[in-house]
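Translate sequence into structure tokens.
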Amino acid sequence: MLLVTDYTRALAAIGVAYAVAMRRRELCIRVALGAKPRDTLELVLRHGGRLVGWGLLIGLAGRFATARAIQSMLYGTSAHDPLTLTATMLLLAAVSLLACWLPAQRAIKADPIVALRAE
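Result follows.
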């Protein structure tokens, strides 16, 4: 079970980072037109945070729906352990927001002309 959640976290982080990287051109245009880098970074983190929040809510609903089914697969903890649930949700949220922040930082610091010509 641990491997499945590790792969899930990795896939979530890669997906979020890819979504932000695809917006690199948009971010460069915003910076080139005079947007403050802090505002642009805030925009990306707010959008990513919204996606992460919805994902956590859907995952939490799925967890409650399948708690009885996965109880037999868990070793050393119950399906209703609030500490494990909270730690997992916080770790996933932190990794996902970091996956938003890193590509956004790179896009903001990039030279807009070079980034626009590369695409």
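Note: Residues 17-59+87-118 form one domain.
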